Amino acid sequence: MTQASPAGANARGRARREALLTAVTADLAANGLVDFSMRRAARAAGTTHKVLIYHFQTSELLLEEAMRRLRMRRIEGALTGAGAGGTLAERVRALWPSLAADDTGLRVIDQAIGLAMYDPQRYVHLAADASDLYVGPLVSLCPPDWRAERKRQVAEMVMATMRGFLMEWRTTRDESRIEAGLAALTRALDSEEARADHE
């Protein structure tokens, strides 16, 4: 019998890990965070919690990877909506429909932020890298001739503002407040872009 090469074994291990992460991410998207555990994840993935520990070490690390995958799905969808043309304000404004969509599979992301605020000691790891994941793509929407520092500052402002809009939308469904906020954000971004043009 021919023994598998280490490279082949590594490829199989990566494929198995990817399949497990995909299954756990799908369960998380469907059922949320509240009663998440390694045993629940194992049931969803059709394996044992020991296998998940082998591949991911802890439930926290598994959860972080699954949440990162869901956030990247949201970011990719939003950036597709933003398109490549128009002013910065127009591109940022175009992010909103994708962010606010009632995609139950992505609402767990908002749940993670809420839990991190409610119980930071237990859930802070769920929000730890969220800001960095969002800021990079938002920087890419800024005019290419802006200084890196200005791009970062504007991206941070947009991220914090959109997060606030999203919390408002999820809790009140008050379209008039969101529209007023988006109009103010649009004016601020137009002003920032005009100021940059004259520097």
Q: Can you tell me about this structure?
A:
The N and C termini lie far apart (72 Å). With 199 residues, the protein is an all-alpha fold. It contains eleven helices and no strands. α10 runs antiparallel to α11. The protein has a single domain, classed as Orthogonal Bundle (Tetracycline Repressor, domain 2).
Structural class determined from secondary elements: mainly alpha
CATH architecture tag: Orthogonal Bundle
CATH topology: Tetracycline Repressor, domain 2
Q: Sketch the major β-sheet.
A: none
Estimate nothing, just give the exact number of structural domains.
1
Low-confidence stretches: 1-5
CATH superfamily: Tetracycline Repressor, domain 2
| Coarse shape | elongated
Text of the CATH class: Mainly Alpha
Number of helices: 11
Query: What's the oligomerization state?
Result: single chain
Number of strands: 0
Instruction: Give the N-to-C terminal Cα separation.
Output: 72 Å
Fraction in helix: over 70%
Secondary-structure element order, N to C: HHHHHHHHHHH
List keywords for this structure.
disordered N terminus, single chain, Tetracycline Repressor, domain 2, elongated, 199 residues, mainly alpha, 11 helices
Describe the structure in brief:
The chain is mainly alpha-helical and 199 residues long. Helices cover 79% and strands 0% of the residues.
Chart the SSEs and their pairings.
Elements: H1 6-31, H2 38-45, H3 49-56, H4 59-82, H5 88-93, H6 96-100, H7 107-118, H8 120-127, H9 130-141, H10 148-172, H11 175-197
Keywords: DNA-binding
Organism: Paractinoplanes ferrugineus
Domain HTH tetR-type: 14-74
